Amino acid sequence: MTLPMNRRHFLSWALAASAVSYGCSSRDLEALDEPYGVDLTDAGIGADFVLNGSDGKPHRLSDFKGKVVLIFFGFTQCPDVCPTALFRAVEIKKMLGEDGDRLQVLFITIDPERDTPELLRAYLAAFDPGFIGLYGDRDQTARTARDFKVFYAKVPTGSSYTMDHSTITYVYDEAGHLRLGLRHAQTPEECVADIRQLLQRR
């Protein structure tokens, strides 16, 4: 579900502000060169987690060291934001060429009540068989979202409900450091330019 513009702007501002408020990191990482996205190198968010995967395996964030990892929070019944973000991820991977194999996309559901492993697997396979869906129980979902400063809320719609949620895609470098927040409005070309900066920093 698309967030109202004022809320989306607030969330982008909050992420950018958090990248400053935590101060200098102890990690000696080379600064990014004017990325299109939000530089989250020193944001102090996005700790490791353990969630179940749509591939039938439990996963930690640290399992994917050695790849650039894109993490997006969403739900399979999302009408616009989530499909757009995932289609963009497909384009990013394609535009990276051979380096596309160094990319791992993780989709964390904020709707574990409806998003079963089977549904997540089928949904993501429609975009790319290599994309992995992650899920936990209600408490695990809330804790993981909180660690990433992700907003989400259930919104009643008659006899059912939809989910309102923030739209940042989080990007980790190959060493497992959170470096970027890709804005929802960024083009695939802009995302690739940002990601290539990380691929060049081995």
TrEMBL record:
Pfam families: SCO1-SenC. InterPro entries: SCO1/SenC, Thioredoxin-like_sf, Thioredoxin_domain. Residues 40-200 form the Thioredoxin domain. Keywords: Copper. The keyword Cell cycle does not apply. It comes from the Bacteria. Belongs to the SCO1/2 family. This is SCO family protein. It comes from Castellaniella ginsengisoli.
